Amino acid sequence: MSCKSPSLERVTQKSEKAKKQIEELNKQLSDLENSAKEKFETKINEHAKKAKVDDFRRLIFNSAIKTEYSHEFSLDKIAPVISAALGAVAQSLTGSVMQVLTSPKAISSYSDLVISISEAAKSNSSASSSLTFSANRIAPGVFAFLSANSISIKDSDTFGEEAVTATSIFYSLNNSIDDLQQTANFDLAYLDAELLLKFKHIQIGYADELAKGQITIAVWSEKNQIIDKTIKSIKDRLDNANYNELFASVKDSDSAELITLFDTDKSKQILEHSLLQFENKGVIYKEALENTKIMLNNPLY
Question: Which among 166, 186, 206 is the end of a domain?
């Protein structure tokens, strides 16, 4: 499956040169598909060993390529495919697991997960480089694996001053009877908490790119507003799932790493450096400055 954003679609409809360049970009990404898929499968196997799950059964595998301007990210065309994949998987399962997978909450969480992975793949910032593969349990006994890779071109005569990025996304849904038996009380709040951290890290990446002059303040503002809206939606879901009580109960467990945004010193250092840059940029950077202060002083919630 290959799709273009509406704005890029309009450009390619008007310009044969643009159309050919996009086709070539997508071809380059497709040529890398075999090696990318091999790495994807290796990471799935590594996760299975780490999770001590040896009865994985693949329910569905698919891939998609989306092409857009670098500041954009949209699931307008991919989201229905994701929803259909969850629905198809649910039909092969029964009872409460099927209900969890087909719930609006599950579909929203999984769609947000795809956004976070594909956007991280497009980022120029090292803060996002480790987010291009994700393994998540999205229901008892059901695991979602996602991976993304991106390549870009820039041609000011054809596309204007901004780069165009093609992103390939692999997704695989697997189930495990052993895990189903072990996680009867699974709650999607764990996935949403991980999503919140992923999007916060992407925000750090935006701040890093802005501080380094890799994007303009206008592009940063547009991207950050979209992320803020997504984060608010995730926070609302966490509130409804009694987030504070949930994470108090796992404070001393393996999930404790979810409690803080600063899982490494790098994130904090990036924000501190960005803050120094924005303080000297004048009033036009006020929003970026305040946003960075908020992340430094309130790293998760």
Answer: 186
